[in-house]
Every structure is written in C-alpha cells, then in structure tokens.
Write a structure and sequence with these properties.
Helix content: 25-40%
Number of strands: 6
Distance between the termini: 28 Å
Largest sheet: 6 strands, mixed
CATH architecture: 3-Layer(aba) Sandwich
CATH superfamily: Ethanolamine ammonia-lyase light chain (EutC)
Strand order of the largest sheet: 1-3-2-4-5-6
Strand content: 15-25%
CATH topology: Rossmann fold
Structural class: alpha/beta
CATH class: Alpha Beta
Oligomer: single chain
Shape: globular
Number of helices: 9
C-alpha cells in the first residue's frame, strides 16, 4: 500500500495463477479491499448453499442409468436436513426399511466392490463430480472384479457406507461423499474405502482419497488411485492405517505441463 493509503499491487499476486486458495488478497488500510470482501461473501454463501441444498436423487439416478448402471436409493435415519446437521449419529445409520430392502436385493455371494454415493456436506460435489468419477471407476474396473449397483444415499455420513456394504454383502465399499465445503472448494468430493464393511468400523479402518474435482484430483486419477487401493486391500485383507497409499510410486506420473512449479 502506498503512503497516501491507496491500494497497491500485491507482490504475491502472480501465485494466484497456481491455486484457488485465498492468497495475495491485498489490503486497504487495516482491512481487505472491497472487491475481496465481496468475493469472500459470495464464497461463504456458496459454501452454505452446498451444505443445505438437497440432492436431486432422481436426476442422478437417471444419469447413472444412462451409463448402463443399475441404482438403488436409500436414506439414513436422519429424517431431514436439520436433523442430519444436528445429529451426526443418525446420518451414520440406515433407515430400517432401507436396510431390509438392501438385504433382500443382495446376491448370495455379494460383490467385490459396492459404490455408495452420499450427499454428505455438499450435494454440489455430488452433482458436479459423482457421474464423471463413477464413469472413470467403471471404465478402469479389472475384469475379474464384480460391482454391485450404485447406491445413492441421502442425509448420509461416511459410516453409513459400512451398514450399506454389510447389508449388500460387499467385500469392499467405497463411499463417494460430498466433503465439508471450503471457501474456495464448495464442490469437493471424497472417497472412503473400507474392507469388510460392517457397523462399528472406525475411521482408522478406512482409506481416504480427498479433493476429487477438476481443480484438485481429476476423476481418472482418483479412479486409478482407488483401484490401486482396492487391489492392495484384497491382497492384505484390510484397509486403513495399515494400508499405506503408495499409488504414486505405481501409477503413471502426470504430464510434465501439469506439474506445479518448484
């Protein structure tokens, strides 16, 4: 800032070309420039909308079915969004009617991997990222692996996938869920992989792939990492802290022009 109090260029401004994080905002006196203050308000509103917006389940199911994928829809024990936000424990449990329906639909021998799409804390993430990610996962699926139908879960927390996977007799469950929105990423999706899912599994028994979105980890790369973890999980018969993600050593490196500058 110049001596007369006017706003000058921020010396870090060139770094904004490499990240969506809120850096090099500048200042006006002791506060933010008006433009950045307004941008903050918009980002905050987008994050709140991502949390409260309802997931359009029929539209998502239609898109997945257009890819040739069967779908099932379930609910958690949280009756509505307000209850879901106030009672995380209810978001981790299936509605009793849906638990019975899943058990009835499960094949005798279950499946190798069950994909569960949960709205989580950002239905925007599901709306924007779920279909391209599922498409990439199915395209990269090893021929010897069996996939169950895609289960769409509303008012869902991560642990809901454990009960869904157990009801469907899945050997592995991957919960694709909207992550807690940030001020620069209201539509980020996370993947939580659990071996032998059953109620009572802890977060230490899962592997997480985070920030799945074009600006973070693209769908094809996320799918490749997921399948690497799936193969290792089946070999070791476990997921979580004992399964170290060394996929970066095994998977092809990104093109040189996408590497971050050093």
């Amino acid at each position: 800032m110049s001596d007369n109090g006017s706003t000058g260029p921020d010396p870090w401004h060139h770094l904004r070309a490499h990240t969506a994080a809120r850096i090099a905002l500048g200042r006006a006196g002791a506060g933010l420039p008006t433009q950045e203050l307004l941008r903050f308000g918009v980002a905050h509103a987008q994050a709140r909308d991502a949390v409260h917006m309802a997931l359009d389940v029929p539209a998502l199911a239609t898109k997945l079915q257009a890819l040739g994928l069967p779908t099932l829809s379930v609910r958690s024990a949280a009756a509505d969004r307000a209850t879901y936000l106030l009672r995380p424990d209810l978001g981790r449990r299936l509605h009793p009617d849906d638990a019975s329906r899943l058990r009835a639909a499960a094949p005798a021998d279950g499946c190798d991997l069950l994909l569960v799409i949960g709205d989580g804390l950002s239905s925007q993430a599901i709306e924007h990222q779920a279909v391209p990610l599922v498409q990439a996962i199915v395209a990269q699926a090893p021929a010897s692996w069996s996939l169950g139908p895609v289960v769409i879960a509303t008012q869902a927390r991560v642990a809901l996938g454990d009960e869904v996977g157990a009801a469907f007799k899945a050997r592995l469950v991957a919960m694709l869920i909207g992550e807690r929105p940030g001020l620069s990423s209201p539509d980020s999706l996370g993947i939580y992989l659990t071996w032998a899912p059953q109620p009572g599994r802890s977060d230490a028994q899962r592997n997480c792939i985070s920030n799945v979105r074009p600006e973070g980890l693209p769908p094809a790369a996320a799918a490749a990492r997921l399948w690497w973890l799936c193969r290792e999980a089946r070999l070791l018969q476990l997921t979580g802290v004992q399964l170290k993600d060394r996929s970066d050593d095994a998977l092809p490196a990104p093109p040189a022009d996408t590497a971050l500058p050093r």
